[in-house]
Every structure is written in structure tokens, then in C-alpha cells.
Amino acid sequence: MVVAPKIRGFICTTAHPEGCAKHVAEQIAVVKNRGPIANGPKKVLVIGSSTGYGLASRIAAAFGSNAATVGVFFERASEGDRTATAGWYNSAAFEREAAAAGLYSRSFNGDAFSDAMKSEVIAAIKQDLGQVDCVIYSLASPRRTHPKTDEVLKSVLKPIGESYTNKNLNTGNGVVNEITIDPANEDEIAQTVAVMGGEDWEMWMEALASANALAPGVQTLAYSYIGPVLTWPIYKNGTIGQAKLDLERAQKALDQKLAPLGGKAWISVNKALVTQASSAIPVVPLYISLLYKIMKAAGSHEECIEQMDRLFRDRLSSGNPQPDKAGRIRLDDWEMADGVQNLISERWSAVNTENFAELADFAGYQANFLKLFGFGLDGVDYSADTDVAVSIPSIS
Asked: What was the pLDDT predicted at 265?
């Protein structure tokens, strides 16, 4: 069938298998062109490995340091003329590329929050790898069924304490408008922390430790974002910010628990990029469009794969992670540079629908959004029939 993008709100309901494969291949090429990563991890578990930073982490580990990788995700296979999700196609492409390179890879599709999935993954690690020396926690989910209570918890993107009004971008038509978001109540805050905070990361690490599946010197990372002051009411100081604070709580607790192994837990604060998660956050798409324009002009723009390659190559494996005063790795350092943020402030004040094309890189935003779903890749014939029924070798 011929697959075209079908966009509904901030998501695309179709994905192109060949386009996703090309996107994965392009990311692999970035890592390989930079050469081997010295002292990189060799046995890596990535929880949330099918898109965005999680996928880029798996690629950087595998093709930068020849790591064996285990990936966990929750994606949908194709059904009839309904395409699979982009994450399914990404994972299938990754496994094919890994096999061609002689690299071990194994994937698990299901609820990463569940005890059953943890048990299944850990059993496979014990059987195939013995232990892992790096655990990446990169889940971004709107809901979680708690494994102990069976309660279905839902996250929200809301301010806390009072309503928040600011400029916003309608990504469907490029109109700069204004949005007002009502504050969260206490239950919404608590549920968001339960879904996006650090409890499940701790559960994974405790289950791995109990099974003796963590190698001496193991490092584990969870990803976060802080951003500029203008986004703080909806992000850092909002419900999701409370979840990120809980992630930092978990990091400190895990750091102590891993100390006997000579291990380390990290929070990596990454740059704002177009991902399936960030596209859903009000205000952020406008900020990203302005940011892309500025950082591309400065020559400092990075996508997910460049960020994760820099994380593994220059921070985790170099012996010089360069933590900030709070102990976090700051890969958002180029984004938060004074020169960049001063320009953001100026343009944020001035931007409107009429000058948006001049001040922002909306074309870049749109192109990156479509690439997430396998569209807009050079060398892919989107007018041709393609087989949407693609299997993931280690699953099918």
C-alpha cells in the first residue's frame, strides 16, 4: 500500500516502514562517522528504546561501542492496512542493522511498568548476557498501571497554583496564538509524579540488583529537561517538573544503592528537541522553532543522535561527565548558553504570526516531526507501494 502521513493534532497516525528504516540508518551513520567510543558500555538495557532519546541511546551504544543491547518498548504492529507505529518500524530496522554488524540485540514489546515485563527482560539478560553495565531509563508515557495496586494513573501537563497564559504555536497552520492552561489539582500532581517520576526506575534497578544482573561499575541514567524561564510554569514548575524532581530523588537513592558495586546513577538534562513527547507540550513547539533557528545559525544545533553520542562519547566514557552543582549531566549546555537564551527572549517578545517565518525555523520543526514517523527522508519513494507488515526479528 502507499503510505502517506495522516496528522491528527500533535501526532501522526501513520508511519512509513522504509522511511523509519532510513531514519535509523542515518542515525547509525552519524555515530559510525565519529569513530569508536573508547571505554563505552558493552551490555546495555534501554527501557523506552523505540523512539527519540531512547532509540538514539541504543544506537549510540551499539554502533559507537559495539554494545550488546536489550530494548524495551510498548509499540503496535501493523494490522491489515493499518501501519505499525513508528517505534515498531524503528526497532525492526535497528535489529536488522545490528544483526548485519554482528551485534547482539533483543527487544521486548509490552508494558515496561509491569512486574511481568521486568521478570521477562531480566530472565533474558541473565540467560544471554549475564549482567548489564549500563541501564538507560527513557520512558515517556501518558499513563501507568501501577504493578502493586493495579491503579491506572494518568499524567497531565499543567501549571501548579494558578492558570498560565503565554504564546503558543498551532503546529497545524503555523499561527502564533495564545493559550491559557488551568492549574492542576493535588490528585493530578500526584498521578503525574507516579507516572513520570522515579518510582519505576527504582523498581527496575531493584529488580535487576536482586537478580544479580548489574555488573560492577554499572551506570544508570534517566533523562530530564529544565529549559528556560519562559517555559517553567508549564514545565519545570508544573506537574511534569514535580515528576522530574522525583526523578532526581530517585537518582540520589539509586546512587547510594549502587555504591557497593562501584556504580553510579545519573540524571542527564538534555536539549529541547522535536520528539513525540515534546510535541504534546503547550508553548514548547514555539520555543523549539525559535531555538532551531538560532542554534542552526550558530552551528551548535544537535538532534537526538548527536546528543546521545556526545553523552556516551564525551561524558560517560571519558571519565569526565562534567556534572553541575546538583550532580546532573548537562547536555543542554549549548541550548542554555547566554547568547542563545538572550536571542530567545528577544524573539519571544517579538514573535507573532506575521513574522514567525522570519524569526523561527518552522520548516525545520515540521521536517523533524515528520521524520519521527518515517516521512520526508531522502531516497525513499513515497509514491510506491510498501509492505507495512514488518517483523521485529527477536519478537516475531
From this structure: 97
Mean per-residue pLDDT, 43-47: 98
Instruction: For 320-334, write each residue's pLDDT tens digit.
Output: 899 999 999 999 999
Give the distance from CA 8 to its chain's centroid.
21
Count the Cβ atoms, other than its own, within 10 Å of residue 203: 16
For 320, the grid coordinates are 569526565
Is residue 63 within 8 A of residue 31, CB to CB? The reply is: yes
Q: φ, ψ for residue 217 (rounded to 5)?
A: 80, 10
DSSP SS3 for 314: helix
pLDDT in tens, 281-295: 888 889 999 999 999
DSSP SS3 for 156: coil
pTM of the model: 0.96
pLDDT at 234 over 90: no
With DSSP H G I counted as helix, E B as strand and the rest as coil, what are the percentages for the chain, rounded to 5? 40, 15, 40
Q: How many residues does the chain have?
A: 396
**What fold is seen in the domain 7-163+186-284+304-332?**
Rossmann fold (3.40.50)
User: What count of other Cβ atoms lies within 10 Å of the Cβ of residue 145?
Assistant: 13
Break the chain into its structural domains and give their ranges. Answer: 7-163+186-284+304-332
| pLDDT on residue 113 | 98
Residue 396 has a pLDDT of: 65
Among the options 89, 225, 235, 365, which is catalytic? Answer: 235
Please, what is the angle between helix 239-258 and helix 186-196, to 10°? 40
Of 191, 190, 205, residue with least CA distance to 144? 191
Locate 118 and state its grid cell.
521486568
Where helices occur in 101-174 by DSSP H, the ranges are 115-128
Rounded to the nearest 5 degrees, what angle is found at the Cα of 92, between the Cα atoms of 87 and 96?
A: 145
Whether 134 contacts 222, CB under 8 Å: no
Give bridge partners of residue 265 from the DSSP assignment.
220
Distance separating alpha carbons of residues 306 and 295, to the nearest angstrom? 14
Separation CA 345–CA 133 (nearest Å): 42
Q: What mean pLDDT value characterizes the chain?
A: 95
| Count of other CB atoms within 10 angstroms of residue 123 | 12
Give per-residue pLDDT as tens, 62-103: 999 999 999 999 999 999 989 999 999 999 999 999 999 999
Beta bridge partners of 69: 44, 105
Q: Is 235 one of the annotated active-site residues of the chain? A: yes
